[in-house]
Design goal:
The structure is a single chain. With 187 residues, this protein is an alpha+beta fold. The protein has one domain: Gcn5-related N-acetyltransferase (GNAT) (Aminopeptidase, 3-Layer(aba) Sandwich). Helices cover 28% and strands 26% of the residues. InterPro entries: Acyl_CoA_acyltransferase, GNAT_dom, N-acetyltransferase. This is RimJ/RimL family protein N-acetyltransferase.
């Protein structure tokens, strides 16, 4: 079974469920209640739109239990002082790895939470999650050529530019070593 929660120093990454995505899409006032977190004023962030939410919901619905953890993840800022747990971003995988063990990730952080290293931490958590599955050998990500901040997030997480991608993006890749406690062939 793939872990559906990952911790980083400041973030709790929670795998999206059908219930969370359904609430986010169709009952937005219940979404923060189900999530157990406050929402930023500009939710959803750029790069995570309604079409992405619908795609993730469709894939989770079609894939059943085996799809859990292979799509969207919510990045929740852990409570600090008087500040409540807050949704700060979204990231995840575009699906399970292919036969060669390659999976693609994407990420986005709400504007009011940018510039604090949270995107770097979010991507680090996704790399950690990929390693924990024991199934991923290589991760691919894309960043706009005109977005040096996003490129830096990937570089800080061990990704290297491997060439141009589509639509003005650069393609980044990195190898993934299975976590010591990853179950071989876990699914």
């Amino acid at each position: 079974m793939i872990p559906l929660i990952t911790h980083t120093p400041r973030l709790l990454l929670l795998a999206a469920s059908r219930a969370l995505l359904t609430a986010e899409l169709h009952k937005p006032r219940y979404f923060p209640v189900l999530l157990g977190a406050a929402l930023p004023t500009d939710w959803p962030p750029a790069g995570y739109d309604r079409a992405a939410m619908e795609f993730f919901l469709e894939r989770l619905t079609a894939g059943g239990r085996t799809a859990a953890g292979w799509y969207n993840w919510y990045a929740l800022r852990k409570p600090a002082g008087d500040a409540p747990r807050t949704l700060v971003g979204s990231g995840g995988f575009m699906g399970p790895p292919d036969a060669a063990g390659t999976a693609e990730i994407g990420y986005s952080v709400a504007a009011e939470w940018r510039g604090q290293g949270l995107a770097t931490e979010l991507v680090g958590g996704l790399v950690q999650q990929a390693a924990a599955t024991g199934l991923v050998r290589r991760l691919v990500a894309h960043a706009r050529a005109d977005n040096p901040a996003s490129q830096q997030v990937l570089r800080r997480n061990g990704f290297d530019v491997t060439g141009p991608g589509a639509d003005g993006h650069l393609r980044f890749e990195r190898a993934v070593e299975p976590a010591a406690d990853a179950a071989p062939g876990a699914a």
